[in-house]
Amino acid sequence: MNKHHHLLLRGASSLTVSLCKRSGPTHLPPAGPLFPSSGAGGTTTAATIVSNFFSRHHHSTLTSPHHHLPKTARMSTTTPSPVDLIEQSKRLAAFQSVTAHLVPFPSRTRIGIGSGSTVIYVVEAITTLVPPTTLSTMTFYPTGAQSEQLIESAGLNLQYINKLPPGTLLDVCFDGADEVDPNLNLIKGGGACLWQEKIVATSSKKFVCVADFRKMSPALGTMWKKGIPIEVLPLAANRVLGELERMGSLGPKVRPGLPGKAGAVVTDNGMWIVDAPFRPLRVEGTSDKEKGEWQVDELADALIKIPGVAEIGLFYGKNGNQAGEGGAQKPVEAYFGMEDGSVKVLSA
Amino acid sequence: MNKHHHLLLRGASSLTVSLCKRSGPTHLPPAGPLFPSSGAGGTTTAATIVSNFFSRHHHSTLTSPHHHLPKTARMSTTTPSPVDLIEQSKRLAAFQSVTAHLVPFPSRTRIGIGSGSTVIYVVEAITTLVPPTTLSTMTFYPTGAQSEQLIESAGLNLQYINKLPPGTLLDVCFDGADEVDPNLNLIKGGGACLWQEKIVATSSKKFVCVADFRKMSPALGTMWKKGIPIEVLPLAANRVLGELERMGSLGPKVRPGLPGKAGAVVTDNGMWIVDAPFRPLRVEGTSDKEKGEWQVDELADALIKIPGVAEIGLFYGKNGNQAGEGGAQKPVEAYFGMEDGSVKVLSA
Amino acid sequence: MNKHHHLLLRGASSLTVSLCKRSGPTHLPPAGPLFPSSGAGGTTTAATIVSNFFSRHHHSTLTSPHHHLPKTARMSTTTPSPVDLIEQSKRLAAFQSVTAHLVPFPSRTRIGIGSGSTVIYVVEAITTLVPPTTLSTMTFYPTGAQSEQLIESAGLNLQYINKLPPGTLLDVCFDGADEVDPNLNLIKGGGACLWQEKIVATSSKKFVCVADFRKMSPALGTMWKKGIPIEVLPLAANRVLGELERMGSLGPKVRPGLPGKAGAVVTDNGMWIVDAPFRPLRVEGTSDKEKGEWQVDELADALIKIPGVAEIGLFYGKNGNQAGEGGAQKPVEAYFGMEDGSVKVLSA
Amino acid sequence: MNKHHHLLLRGASSLTVSLCKRSGPTHLPPAGPLFPSSGAGGTTTAATIVSNFFSRHHHSTLTSPHHHLPKTARMSTTTPSPVDLIEQSKRLAAFQSVTAHLVPFPSRTRIGIGSGSTVIYVVEAITTLVPPTTLSTMTFYPTGAQSEQLIESAGLNLQYINKLPPGTLLDVCFDGADEVDPNLNLIKGGGACLWQEKIVATSSKKFVCVADFRKMSPALGTMWKKGIPIEVLPLAANRVLGELERMGSLGPKVRPGLPGKAGAVVTDNGMWIVDAPFRPLRVEGTSDKEKGEWQVDELADALIKIPGVAEIGLFYGKNGNQAGEGGAQKPVEAYFGMEDGSVKVLSA
């Protein structure tokens, strides 16, 4: 059902380049529909994508082949450390997601911007790739204080999701995740902003997830072991905890606010966060509640109905391709910066 | 499915009713001004109920026939006005609900107390009927500021719902409603306290609704025309409004705070209230979304899943008899004070 | 100390015009520095002000003498009703305040916009009088939801006060008041937005008050009898009430939220409002606490220090002319629409 | 002005102290296992204090010499580590503060309970020293979630400060501090609970501070270098930051919520915390604003008046001995557990 585009940058048998965009000439492999390549062989790199893109769309303004390349791409010359490799792949993932989902940069695009270390590169990609005159017509909707600051620092047009007129949708939303399963179900909420994140995501025609390899998971709860973040009304916290235990959660807890605050974390909405660990969630099939094993959709449907629960950190159900008029929680694609410098794409 | 106990207090000359489903057949005396009993046949009065009740349960402690009767019952001597009649029937409804659901007044009972003009009589009934030593072992859980004050004014033991240990339930909850349909689905939230009210109701083994005849309705949306109260995150208000319109709501609006506050009402939870009118909700069958006609459960299931919705003012689904371990939203019974002074009971 | 500019529109002995700006030729009286008139006698009217203004500043764009006049001015042809008279004078007051404090309409002006029925005319005046290209460089900062809507409806550039960079000030703020004393001390907070209003006012180089004659008062507490609105932390409400009573407040109360909300009004900041009536506040001299009589500044200084008080609805102390670097609470001028159609100006 | 009772527990060979200002001169016996003394005469230990206390007050009930001693006192047998020493001295400080300020344990005492590691020992002291029948008549008022839990865990009667009737005061409040100067001015708010802490403290007849030696300071800002915690309305944060810089604060910042929450810490009151470092605050004299040096009271008076500031973490001005009717912010005494196992008492 889901296609995996694993865009190898290293390790592919005929790869002649060091990495990413520092590369000189590249033998490109046959490209898939997402990142078509006119050439014959070799791997797809960000440089290729970006220059391909610009050669198709912005001939006249592209005075230098590197004109629109991100700065670090042009400056790195030495062998990257493992940390650098990951940062580079995250950045590449961000550039790919932007080229794939914003081309041909229509005017007046409304874009949701989430948080997370990879989203920073999304904003860099947008400011680098989108022509300034077009960029000035676009508006950007943050999912929280962090992304609000990111939007403002980049000099982009900030707008709030509460200003989106009823019946209108954002064109696309780029956001991270704490864990992603093969069906593109997500856990989000490590930063306690899940409610606003879900509102922005479901206000978008499509949601594109960007993250690093550590977020890829065979089943939710495998990598992210702290539990599903659940935003609850403080006076219902005890009741929700009891309900969660009855449903098989293994030691759900109210998230503490230390060191900055004694007592519980209070969200921007005045709520608390309960972190509810469950056994790894089944991607397919049904739940076996006897064993405390849940299928994602069934668990999510049960959690959201608990009185006192404001919102849950499970993003599930439909994606933007399936839901005609908004409201989809799942991304249409997830881009991961891999450990080896490559990008992996998971498509719905 | 639902039985109607229509307990006439005036006019019916020879009624032999099954009182509150707990007593056997009763020959009821004619009713006097408030609850006078001059003669032989027929209607149930509060005095009758209460003294019947006590003669069966508390022989030894009942030193005076009027000992436990509410004060006004003993003092009224003139023909009641229509307004008085309604107040009397609401009071009677409250006393009936308490006798039906608190007998035999077990110690350490945990009782939810809601708001509304009829609930005031519930508290009067409890303080009147429950022996003081037992009363001092009971704890009372309010659904909001109004009922908190009511509990404190009556000198009862106040406790907050957030103190209820995980996995524990209240024994019973008495609360009002803005509209009640024949299947005991409710609309609540006219006072903007619906979130806390739902948490208290669903934290109870059984929820008992007390109200006046104006709240009885063949279909939700018939009597209460302001719309279903929906508690929403302020930044999602526009998105929720758009979604509601798409679902067929006729002019949903954010509830204004005037005269006390410019702008929107802010709830005790920091949320806003959207009032969403729909065509009268179908009690049975399924929704016909083309016509904008919804069946209660289907609408509620759809509303609660809209991101940005914290809670909805529809109480639906199971009642406490059906849901073993709490979580039921519907009352097991509803008691209505009728226009003619009588009480109508709607049972699940 | 304070000057009263009483700009008579009716009743002045040599007045030949009906009203406002519908007037034909006008005999103008000698004008003061604020509204200079080239002509000889007669009263200053909005038409005069506006056309004078434009003849001095926008010759070329003023193709029709009525081009920039507000619509209603041109449409009224009959003798105004008392209600109309007041509305017209409020509108005139608004136009005067804008011409007095925004001329010569510098670019990039940052303007605070408050709430109240007269402020609506301020926005009309701004959109009418400021040339569109200049207007598009201005930003407008609301004091609450109502003024936010007003700004957006007028198509003006909305910005939030939390976005004002540290150390920066708004150029001017136009806002209403619930009561104004001769020293330009104010009571505000009838709409429960006093905290945000005070932040916007004190973030401005100067604050200009616009209101109608009903808000003019010899001493605060004379006209506005509901009490000084005080925004308090809910858990401190009782303590604050006790403190207020000890200070001589006559029946301070938590403001109720009905009909939209049971219990207390909750402000946009999650606080409650206590309305604290005091005997009329002394404009000068000192307090006589024995008699429960307070001088404005002394009362304000005492109130703001009560723990649990977030902000108070007294605007007092310095005005923008006196306070070099912002932080002033009092307006530099107050414009009142009078009952007789005229405008009264109170200057610091 | 302030007296220092330095109660050495180790090393002082022939101390005759005035214990807690309540006892007469005391010859102290050799200490027991918990606070062993190598010397022959003299040092005060918790055991001594407690047994002295009980021998004077509760002869009849004291069947065993260790009956009322805290458990750890009886269990420790080895030479304490430095950490143990500090814990022991904090505990001793707590026991001393309770004996000094709760004797003779009057019934129905209302006691404020704050947070901090030393307050835990205060609760231990109360439950250990107060006779159970008296204890059951006392009510305990927390300053936040942490102390609420502490009160409940100890099985004490919990009550909330908002339930204190207007005009009533707590008898005493025990709370910690982040820094204490020689005049008993305090910095509090490291746990973001300063608003509620100040309300509880100023609702008390007297406030008693308990802490460890690290909180003693010659001038506020010397030991606690993170800055004065200031609770601000989020939309005023920028404005407050600008004002603070203008006043000489060195790099004031909004406190971040990580790791539990992205963006700012949100307090239980929905506010943010700004931490504002200043040069060490002058205990006496006046401010020299040119040099950015402030006297405590002057700084506090200036900070509390900044619009957007809800409350400040400076506790200053009067103490409970000076302020007749409540409202005092400063403690009447501070008890410090010292590094060497002794207790130091600072009295107003």
TrEMBL record, chains A, B, C, D:
Belongs to the ribose 5-phosphate isomerase family. Pathway: Carbohydrate degradation; pentose phosphate pathway; D-ribose 5-phosphate from D-ribulose 5-phosphate (non-oxidative stage): step 1/1. Pfam families: Rib_5-P_isom_A. This is Ribose-5-phosphate isomerase. Keywords: Isomerase. GO terms for molecular function: ribose-5-phosphate isomerase activity. Residues 59-71 have a biased composition (Basic residues). It catalyses: aldehydo-D-ribose 5-phosphate = D-ribulose 5-phosphate. Residues 59-80 are annotated as: Disordered. Its EC number is 5.3.1.6. Gene3D superfamilies: 3.30.70.260, 3.40.50.1360. The keyword Ribosomal protein does not apply.
